[in-house]
């Protein structure tokens, strides 16, 4: 080992340049890899949730976003609950935590991960996501049946960003709520959620949506008209008022999840719902949604890791070049060693190990710089709930092992060349 280090030091400038090439590659690999880990963690949580239910959405919308006026017909959801194999239908309302900033309309959509979101829950429903039945709490409790409408549970990132703890008051869109609990860190969507009872969520949505607000005002005004006054009105006017009266706050629903009975096949139940209500709602089966999520994950990982591996390939060729040049310069030395009885295997082992140490040093430095960069950026972005890197010990150990393996692999060809060198040819160089 001492001789290997001495040989590296004898050509320190070339060794430095080679190690520097590996540093760049492993830095990129560490940064990109930790970003991929974070993305995969988020995807894993989202997939776990979405594959634990049959998702029902308004017709004409998509899973990644829909129209602002899109509502689910409550009568249809009632009929869906009667489909064979369905255990329960859980209705909900989803909207952004804060009203859009007119000076920064793209602010929320440009964030990494799930933007701060209100999740209105029907606490009286028997619905239960089959994969996510409970959530770990950092403190307090999850809102449940019997809680008042002013109670909320906030995600880890929301609590961190707003400096909230159990018992604190939190004003949302001009309305004050009390924090009943804070979720433990999940590294996925719920970290950015505020869970509240569905009634206040509906009221907040109506207040922020001009179309729904207008319908509610018309309904409130129509409710003040007596039956006698209504009967005296012209037919056309009477029909408009009756239509306005039909609007109910309890009918405002933007999403729904369907759980299936024990022993039932989720795909069979999903297909039954599709066949019966394909003209009224959009039905997303858990299996097919899981497949779509997997495809997106594979593509993202391929892009990120492909960029990092490109840098590593460049570093590998740098090692090969350095070792080939080193062997050419040390032909006399190899000849003397062989003349003194050194075997080809010992020669090959020495040069392969030297290449491995170069890769190891470059990997350790590159990994250290990558971790430092990821930690600093995460710390900077943590206040906004936009951490984009995930550092895991097993990944870091893999980076070190991989960098050593890259060095060994890159050094094999030059080492074999040195091992096969003839003593007579080497002695001629003397």
From TrEMBL:
Residue ranges crossing the lipid bilayer per the database entry:
15-37, 298-320, 355-377, 389-413
> What subcellular compartments does it reside in?
Cell membrane
Q: Which UniProt keywords apply?
A: Cell membrane, Membrane, Transmembrane, Transmembrane helix
- The main location is membrane
Q: Which residues form the ABC3 transporter permease C-terminal domain?
A: 307-422
- GO molecular function per UniProt: transmembrane transporter activity
Q: Which domain of life does the UniProt lineage start with?
A: Bacteria
Q: Where is the MacB-like periplasmic core domain?
A: 15-205
Q: Which GO terms describe its cellular component?
A: plasma membrane
Report the membrane topology from the UniProt record: Multi-pass membrane protein
| InterPro entries xref list | ABC3_permease_C, MacB_PCD, Macrolide_Exporter_MacB
Query: Which family is annotated?
Result: Belongs to the ABC-4 integral membrane protein family.
Its protein name is ABC transporter permease
């Amino acid at each position: 080992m001492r001789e290997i280090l001495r040989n590296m030091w004898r050509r320190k400038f070339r060794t430095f340049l080679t190690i520097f090439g590996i540093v760049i590659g492993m830095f990129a690999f560490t940064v990109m890899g930790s970003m991929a880990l974070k993305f995969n963690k988020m995807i894993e949580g989202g997939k776990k949730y979405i594959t634990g239910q049959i998702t029902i959405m308004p017709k004409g919308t998509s899973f990644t976003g829909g129209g602002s006026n899109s509502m689910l017909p409550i009568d249809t959801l009632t009929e869906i609950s009667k489909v064979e194999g369905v255990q329960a239908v859980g209705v909900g309302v989803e909207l952004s935590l804060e009203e859009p900033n007119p000076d920064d309309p793209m602010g929320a959509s440009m964030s990494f991960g799930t933007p701060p979101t209100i999740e209105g829950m029907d606490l009286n429903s028997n619905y239960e996501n089959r994969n996510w039945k409970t959530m770990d709490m950092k403190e307090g409790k999850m809102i449940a049946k019997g809680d008042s409408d002013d109670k909320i549970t906030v995600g880890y990132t929301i609590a961190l960003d707003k400096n909230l703890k159990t018992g604190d008051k939190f004003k949302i869109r001009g309305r004050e709520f009390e924090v009943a609990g804070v979720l433990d860190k999940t590294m996925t969507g719920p970290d950015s959620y505020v869970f509240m009872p569905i009634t206040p969520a509906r009221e907040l949505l109506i207040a922020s949506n001009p179309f729904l607000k207008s319908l509610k005002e018309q309904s409130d005004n129509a409710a003040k008209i007596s039956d006698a006054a209504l009967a005296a009105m012209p037919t056309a006017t009477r029909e408009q008022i009756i239509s306005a009266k039909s609007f109910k706050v309890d009918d405002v629903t933007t999403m729904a999840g369907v759980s299936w009975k024990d022993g039932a096949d989720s795909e069979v139940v999903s297909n039954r719902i599709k066949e019966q209500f394909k003209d009224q709602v959009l039905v997303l089966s858990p299996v097919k949604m899981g497949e779509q999520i997997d495809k997106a994950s594979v593509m993202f990982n391929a892009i990120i890791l492909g960029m990092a591996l490109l840098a590593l390939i460049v570093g590998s060729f740098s090692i090969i070049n350095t070792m080939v040049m080193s062997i050419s310069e040390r032909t006399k030395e190899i000849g003397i060693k062989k003349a003194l009885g050194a075997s080809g295997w010992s020669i090959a082992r020495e040069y392969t190990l030297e290449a491995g140490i170069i890769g190891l040093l470059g990997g350790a430095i590159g990994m250290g710089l990558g971790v430092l960069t990821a930690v600093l950026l995460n710390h900077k972005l943590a206040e906004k709930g936009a951490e984009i890197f995930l550092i895991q010990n097993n990944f870091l150990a893999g980076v070190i092992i991989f960098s050593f393996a890259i060095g060994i692999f890159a050094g094999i060809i030059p080492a074999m060349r040195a091992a096969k060198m003839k003593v007579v040819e080497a002695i001629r160089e003397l």
